[in-house]
Amino acid sequence: MKIRNGFTLIELLVVISIIALLIGILLPTLGTARQTARQMGSNTQLRGIHQANVVFAQGNKTGGGDGWFAGLSPSGDIAEEPPATATYTVAGPRALTMPRHRYALLLEDNAFTPEYIISPVDEDAVEATGGDVVAINFSYCMSSLGNNTGSDGYASVVNPFDPQSTGRILGWGETLSASEPVLSDINTGQGLNTVSSFWTEEDSGQWEGGVVMNDNSVSFSSSHLVENTRFSNFVTIPEDNLFFDGDLDADGNNARPDGKNALLVFGQGVEGRDQDRLNRRD
Q1: Which CA distances in Å does 119 have to 35, 48, 84, 267?
Q2: What is the pLDDT of residue 4?
């Protein structure tokens, strides 16, 4: 009797078909798992940046009061520009209210390494190596410290209810509040109506990203609208836009029905971008 030692063509095709089917089933699962791992890694970095600010605040206070995060002086005013002899610096007084100033201070303090402030999905970011820290060196935005319209040219806690001069400055410290969003992935879109992030299609109107509250809790949100935010003694906003600053009256109440509390800035303007980031589109 003749013994067969090989596979027939049909058997081989069946095996190949089964393998292809299994690959087709597993690939989406592997892609989802990889995306989830990136999201978790990014959120871990966001939480670490907040923790670095909490540590910074321990030595950045006056008397027995709560400390202020990087970017504010021990008295709660806008901190001075880093000296020219510092490894990490910023260019111009306008930068003192921007996140790049705060990143420069934290990098100078060795709070983390330059790659730590770059998102796992920010493919064209460049690590800061010294000198002026600019938008291309980081992927995460921070709570607003206001615009340079105060009497001294900078924001100040003296007038906490003027959003044009203070933004959310009272929340940039050791409040440990679960209702204060202080860090997140940036808005890469052209404006408030065309928001986007590194996790979504650019200018798609869809934003996703990590959001850190001031109690160090972090979540990956599928929207730039967050529920029930409240800064200091401002009113609570049921649904707040992370990248929009509404009007507040002298009592800290909303001066218009659609007023908002949150304003997380990346660079210049409420959209959370500056020219360095815009240049990356070209």
Answers
A1: 12, 13, 28, 17
A2: 59
Neighbours of 165 (CB within 10 A): 23
**CA R_g for the chain:** 23
What's the rounded Cα separation, in Å, for the pair 3 and 7? 12
Task: Output the CA torsion sign for 105, 107, 108, 111.
Answer: positive
What phi, psi does 130 have (nearest 5°)? 130, 165
**Residue 2 pLDDT:** 58
Q: Are 98 and 159 in contact (CB under 8 A)?
A: no
Tell me what pLDDT residue 219 has: 95
Residue 27 phi, psi (nearest 5): -60, -50
User: Which pLDDT score, from 0 to 100, does residue 226 have?
Assistant: 87
Q: Is the pLDDT of residue 252 over 70?
A: no
> Residue range 97-107: average pLDDT?
92
Q: Which 8-state DSSP code applies to residue 191?
A: S
- Tokens 């934003």 belong to 207
Task: Please give the single-letter amino acid code of residue 87.
Answer: T
Backbone angles phi, psi at 49, to 5 degrees: -65, -40
Q: Report which residue type is found at 217.
A: S
* pLDDT (mean) for 206-219: 95
Burial class (CB in 10 A: 0-12, 13-18, 19+), 9: exposed
Indicate the average pLDDT of the chain. Answer: 78
Report d(CA 201, CA 192) in Å as an integer.
15
Is 236 within 8 Å of 246 (Cβ atoms)? no
C-alpha dihedral sign at 240, 246, 250, 253 = negative
Contact criterion met (CB below 8 Å) for 272 and 243: yes
Instruction: Determine the pLDDT at residue 237.
Output: 78
Query: Encoding tokens for residue 140?
Result: 């995460």
